[in-house]
């Protein structure tokens, strides 16, 4: 397709990342979405890491606190005050309540200073803003694989920053090692890239596991030795439902003054509270220059004062906040166990996990060969025949074919049961060779090799 030369290179190029199977699965789901009555044979969305398990708790709080949603304080309207508020530093009451909530999620092992907190329009904005603060175009960040497919968009598309994968293996449950870190660093240098930092998700998306203290120590020693930064995306911190618990990067650097100003935390209320539409993200840093620069940049993606006011009232209600966290974790664990049990009934296992809204599912035994082409064939069968949208490991840059991210918290319990029935039926008939699955070609052509392996200089739809 010929580029429109009257537009900028950014507008004219097709480098957002929408040619990934992760996003293509979304498109197919949107063409044929499952509905228990209107479209019972439609595609069930299992590629969306969304928490719909505890809305009733939030709605109950709103029913008993109508003043917050009605923009009233002590019965007096604050509509005018909020409508005129536009300070990009944010409402002090909200920042204080949010900082306290972040500490509560970490069992108050660490305290967050509201003055070191920057509000952004979701974690997508937070991560991109940090890239703008920490790296220049052409410089690199190292990311352990598998990683969230949207990072190719969030970190690279507008910033020009490159991603170099840290290749992790199923042999040690995809944990980060010193050797893998050093290999990625050397690969970047060989390609002429200056490495500016490492970015991790803790708990991991897509693994659903918390980063171990040993891994954090390896990372901290690594950034200290290289003189680079660490970004810890902790947006799933409130979803940890079993041991080992979360060790935040903030906790891991206690006593490490040599790196305290080069470790930065990203948080959001999209996952823990299930509020992605509210667009509330956070950058937390001890680096006053980063905080100052990120605060200025946040003017391009502010959180509305109405949203801040409502959530400040909700999170300031300590009794409600902690009751919500405890109950939400119980519900996530129950739903997680349903998925794991259902898959085991079909002869499919998952990586042991203790957090998140998804499982990292091992379908290597269902591949016709140990290749990414076979993974794509299996993904197409699951999408078009089984009618489940899941995310293949190649879209997460996994170095081993046959792994899939499967989400479980964005649907009704009956829908999850139906999904498990479908997958069991598929495995029974396919494995026993009683039929041949007709492969339906993908409606849009894309290069798997390019998506999985390329470290291009080009930039890479929905919040993860």
TrEMBL record:
Keyword S-adenosyl-L-methionine assigned: yes
First-level EC class: lyase
Aminotransferase class I/classII large domain ranges (all copies): 44-423
Any GO BP annotation: ethylene biosynthetic process
Catalysed reactions, semicolon-separated: S-adenosyl-L-methionine = 1-aminocyclopropane-1-carboxylate + S-methyl-5'-thioadenosine + H(+)
InterPro entries in UniProt: Aminotransferase_I/II_large, Ethylene_sulfur-biosynth, NHTrfase_class1_PyrdxlP-BS, PyrdxlP-dep_Trfase, PyrdxlP-dep_Trfase_major, PyrdxlP-dep_Trfase_small
Transmembrane segments: none
Enzyme Commission number(s) of this protein: 4.4.1.14
Keywords: Ethylene biosynthesis, Fruit ripening, Lyase, Pyridoxal phosphate, S-adenosyl-L-methionine
Metabolic or biological pathway: Alkene biosynthesis; ethylene biosynthesis via S-adenosyl-L-methionine; ethylene from S-adenosyl-L-methionine: step 1/2
Superkingdom to which the source organism belongs: Eukaryota
Cofactor(s) listed: pyridoxal 5'-phosphate
Molecular function terms from GO: 1-aminocyclopropane-1-carboxylate synthase activity; pyridoxal phosphate binding; transaminase activity
Family: Belongs to the class-I pyridoxal-phosphate-dependent aminotransferase family.
Name of the protein described by the UniProt record: 1-aminocyclopropane-1-carboxylate synthase
Organismal lineage: Eukaryota, Viridiplantae, Streptophyta, Embryophyta, Tracheophyta
């Amino acid at each position: 397709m010929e580029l429109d030369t009257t537009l900028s290179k950014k507008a004219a190029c097709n480098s957002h990342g929408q040619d990934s199977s992760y996003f293509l699965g979304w498109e197919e789901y949107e063409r044929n979405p499952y509905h228990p009555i209107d479209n019972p044979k439609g595609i069930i969305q299992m590629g969306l890491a969304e928490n719909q398990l505890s809305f009733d708790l939030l709605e109950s709080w709103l029913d008993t606190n109508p003043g917050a949603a009605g923009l009233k304080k002590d019965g007096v309207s604050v509509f005018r005050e909020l409508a005129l508020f536009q300070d990009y530093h944010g409402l002090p009451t909200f920042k204080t309540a949010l900082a306290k909530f972040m500490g509560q999620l970490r069992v108050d092992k660490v305290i967050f200073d509201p003055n070191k907190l920057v509000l952004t329009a979701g974690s997508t904005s937070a991560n991109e803003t940090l890239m703008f603060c920490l790296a220049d175009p052409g410089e690199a960040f190292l990311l352990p694989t598998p990683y969230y497919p949207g990072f190719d968009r969030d970190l690279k598309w507008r910033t020009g920053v490159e991603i170099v994968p840290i290749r992790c293996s199923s042999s040690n449950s995809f944990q980060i090692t010193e050797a893998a870190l050093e290999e990625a660093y050397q690969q970047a240098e060989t390609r002429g890239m200056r490495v500016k930092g490492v970015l991790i998700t803790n708990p991991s998306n897509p693994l659903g596991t918390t980063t171990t203290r040993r891994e954090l120590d390896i990372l901290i020693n690594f950034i200290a030795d290289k003189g680079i930064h660490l970004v810890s995306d902790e947006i799933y911190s409130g979803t940890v439902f079993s041991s080992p618990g979360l060790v935040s990067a903030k906790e891991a650097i206690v006593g490490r003054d040599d790196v305290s100003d080069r470790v930065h935390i990203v948080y959001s209320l999209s996952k823990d509270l299930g509020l992605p539409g509210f667009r509330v993200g956070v950058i937390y840093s001890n680096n006053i220059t980063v905080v100052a620069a990120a605060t200025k940049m946040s003017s391009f993606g502010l959180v509305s004062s109405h949203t801040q006011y409502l959530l400040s009232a909700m999170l300031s209600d300590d009794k409600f906040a902690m009751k919500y966290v405890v109950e939400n974790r119980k519900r996530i664990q129950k739903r997680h166990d349903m998925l794991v049990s259902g898959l085991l009934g079909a002869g499919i296992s998952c990586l042991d996990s203790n957090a998140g809204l998804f499982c990292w599912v091992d379908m290597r035994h269902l591949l016709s060969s140990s290749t990414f082409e076979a993974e794509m064939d299996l993904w197409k069968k699951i999408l078009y025949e089984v009618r489940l949208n899941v995310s293949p490991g190649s879209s997460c840059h996994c170095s081993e074919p046959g792994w899939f991210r499967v989400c479980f918290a964005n649907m009704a319990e009956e829908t999850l049961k139906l999904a498990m029935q479908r997958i069991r039926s598929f495995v029974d008939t396919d494995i026993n060779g009683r039929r041949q699955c007709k492969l339906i070609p993908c409606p849009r052509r894309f290069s798997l090799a390019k998506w999985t392996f390329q470290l291009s200089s080009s930039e890479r739809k929905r919040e993860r």
